[in-house]
Amino acid sequence: MSGKNVTEVVQPDAEGIAQAAKTLELGGLVAIPTETVYGLAARADSADAVAAIYAAKGRPDFNPLIVHVADIAQAEMLAIFDERAKDLAERFWPGPLTLVLPLREDAAVAGAVTAGLPTIALRQPAHKVMRAVLAETRFPLAAPSANKSEGISPTRADHVIASLGQACSLVIDGGASQEGLESSIVALRDEGGWNLLRHGPVTKESLERILGPETADQVSTIEAPGQLARHYSPGKPLRLSVSKPDADEFFIGFGSIEGDCSLSASADLHEAAARLYDCLHQAAASDKARIAVAPIPYGEVGRAINDRLRRAAAD
Length: 315
Prior knowledge:
Mean pLDDT: 93
CATH topology of the largest domain: DHBP synthase
Low-confidence stretches: none
Strand order of the largest sheet: 1-8-2-3-7-4-6-5-9-10
């Protein structure tokens, strides 16, 4: 039963989708599964609803939000798409790629969504539940990860509840996220330039094959989520590239290096990405005072995993 001080968990069926859509329409917050992580969604055109996201997460107001759209047509009502943007959207949407593009002057989004920047971050998600909610609401949804700011991203409904508690009154339980890492974020610049702002499932190598070499210089402003030096923190000291953990460390293994939790016993980097946050949640909940992680090889997906771990280990 729902109530003021209760987080209600609903199933991803027609009734649950309708309840979520109604909550969103009225300006409420709903945690919704996506193929990357669970998102804390609110209607992007409501200043009060967007403010509620920042308050629930304890998120700094200079850190913009990603807006989730139903399709490219809806995205083009919010941002200016050049030929490169259209090409990327056609290749990777729906899917785990976020585009940072020039904001249209008449875009119907709250100012806090973009943190006052002249750009907006857009993604068309692939997860059937998020897509069903977007189809039901007919308005774009701002939806950062459904956890406290700087904390471990949620890949299951129970992660959301453990992090946000009563700050989120409704959660759609869609099971474990398939990708397990947030979307890749690419900013398209003038004169053909571009920057990868956050590593993710769509790799730098894939983008370079389409766009050419990445532009060397990046804008110093925070333009999208995941750029803060400290992020994804488990709340305990974290050591990386460890082969033998200390006695007081919860050990996250990989490949032939066993641990209290393994990212992938078969050294599959895609499986490791999907399990990363779940293992970090287990480590954070353990009675061990510290955390250690086995070496993770760099590569197309390994780069994104190591990026998250480096930020999680930052002081």
